[in-house]
Amino acid sequence: MKKILILIDWFLPAYKAGGPIRSVANLVFHLKNNFEFFIITSDRDLNDENHFKNIIFDKWIKNYGINIFYLHKKKLNYQFLKNFLKKEKIDFIYLNSFFSFNFTIYPLILFKILNFRLKIIMATRGMLSQNALKIKSSKKKVFIFLAKKFKIFNGLTFQASTEIEKKEIIEVFGKKVNIKVVSNLPSFVKKIDNFSKEKNKAELNLIFLSRISKKKNLLFFIKILKKYVFIGKINFFIYGNIDEKNYWNICKKEISDIKKNNIQIFYKGSIENFLVGKLLRKFHFYILPTLNENFGHSIFEAFSNACPSIISDETPWKNLENKNIGWDISLKDEKKWVFVIQNCLNMEEKEYNQISKNSYDFAVDFFKDGKIIDNNKLLFDN
User: Fold this and answer.
1) Which segments of the chain does DSSP mark as H helices, in order?
2) 74 pLDDT above the threshold of 80
3) Residue 363: which residues within 8 A CB-CB, separation 6 or more?
C-alpha cells in the first residue's frame, strides 16, 4: 500500500478555513482503504489563539482512522521531517496551500536541502485564479516572482480540479509544468426521506455559509438587497468565520443602512461541520456570490441537503437553472440576481419542494459517479 504524506495548515476538527479542510477530509475518507495517509497539520483552527481540546500534540495518533500529527508550535522541525521521511519511505507528498510558508514553502526548501527526490503533488485550491490573485495582489506577485526565481515549485505535479484551473496554472507557470486534472471528491451524502419544507409565497429564507472574505463576495449580495426593491419578506442568515475584519466591517455598515421592514439580515457566527447538514435543510436557498471556487464544497453540501443554490458563475457548478436545482448568475448581471430572488419569493411550496428534491437527487447522482474516485486514485499513480 502506497504511503501519502499530506501537509495542510488546518485539518479536522478544524472547520473555519472551509474548502481545503473539506477537500482533504473527503480525499482520505474515500481512499483510506487504498492508501496509507499521514497528515501533518497545526494544533488549532484558523485564527484561534487556543489549541484543540482533547487532542494529543507532537505525537502520531490515529484520528478518524488516519495517522495525524498535530504540531503544537505550528512549525515543521527539520530533524523531525528528515527522520520521518527516512523511516516511512513516503511515496507521495501532497501539499494544499500555494501560499503557505509553514506547510508548503518551508517543506519544499527542506526537501531540496535534504536532497530527497520525492514525488510531490501541489493542489492549488483555486489560489491561482485571476480573481483570487487580485486579493493582496502586490504580495502575491512578489511571492510568485521569487518562487519562480528560486525554482521552489520545479519538478512537482500540480493538481487542477478543472480544465479552467489548469489554464490558470499555465498562465502563471507556463505550458511546460506537469498538471493532472482531477476533481475534488464530494462529501458523503446522507439519506433524506422527507422533502417537504414550508414555503409560503412572498416569504424567503436564505443562507450564506462560508468564510467572510473578499473572495466569497458577501458584500455583493448585501448591496443587492439594499439597492433593489423586493415584494415579499426576506430573511437572510449569514454563517461563517470572519477571515477579514475590515471587509466584515464594510458589510456591517451596508447592513445597518438597509432600512426596509421586509428585509432582515442576521449574522450567526461560524458553525462546526457536523451541524451544517441539519442547518442547511432549514433554508430555502443557499447564496454564494463567490469570485472563484475550484470546487465549492459548501455548494455541494447545500445540494446534498436539499437546499437549492443561487450562486455566481465563477464555480464549476454550471447550468443549474436547466437542471432545475438553482441558478448560476454572472456578477455583472445584477438585474438577473434581482429577477431570480423575486422569482424565488413568488414561488409556492409545491414548486419549491420539487426544486429541493431535484437538488438532492443531483447530489446523489454526482456522489455515485465512480469516475471521480478512480481519477483521484490515479493522482497517486506512477
Assistant:
1) 19-31, 78-88, 106-114, 130-134, 137-149, 163-173, 218-227, 245-256, 273-280, 297-304, 320-323, 334-346, 349-367, 370-379
2) no
3) 186, 189, 300, 303, 304
Contact 272, 15 (CB under 8 A): yes
Cα–Cα distance for residue pair 212/248, rounded to 1 Å? 7
Rounded to the nearest angstrom, the gap between the alpha carbon of residue 29 and the centroid of all alpha carbons in its chain is: 16
- Residues β-bridged to residue 236: 206, 265
First CA to last CA distance, the chain: 13
How far apart, in Å, are the Cα atoms of 265 and each of 93, 216, 221, 268, 307?
44, 17, 11, 10, 19
CB neighbours (10 Å) of residue 23?
Answer: 21
The residue with cell 476538527 is 13
The answer to whether 344 touches 310, Cβ cutoff 8 Å, is yes
Q: State the cell numbers at 160.
A: 487542477
pTM of this structure: 0.92
- pLDDT for 321-350, tens place per residue? 999 999 999 999 999 999 999 999 999 999
User: What grid cell was written down for 81?
Assistant: 521531517
User: Are the C-beta atoms of residues 40 and 33 closer than 8 Å to each other?
Assistant: no
Instruction: Pull the grid cell for residue 179.
Output: 498538471
Q: Around Cβ 37, how many Cβ atoms within 10 Å?
A: 22
Is residue 324 a contact partner of residue 213, using CB atoms and an 8 Å limit?
Answer: no
Peptide bond into 20 cis (omega under 30): no
The Cα 116–Cα 93 span in angstroms is: 11
Q: How many CA atoms lie within 13 A of 381 on its CB side?
A: 8
Q: Which residues lie across from 60 on neighbouring strands?
A: 69
The arrangement of secondary structure in 203-367, i.e. its CATH architecture, is 3-Layer(aba) Sandwich (3.40)
- Answer yes or no: are the C-beta atoms of 95 and 120 closer than 8 Å: yes
- Do domains 3-185 and 203-367 share one topology? The answer is yes
Q: Residue 72 above 70 pLDDT?
A: yes
Q: In CATH terms, is domain 3-185 a member of 3.40.50.2000?
A: yes
Contact 183, 329 (CB under 8 A): no
- Distance, in Å, from the CA atom of 33 to the CA atom of 187, rounded to the nearest integer, reads 17
Residue ranges of the domains in the chain? Answer: 3-185, 203-367
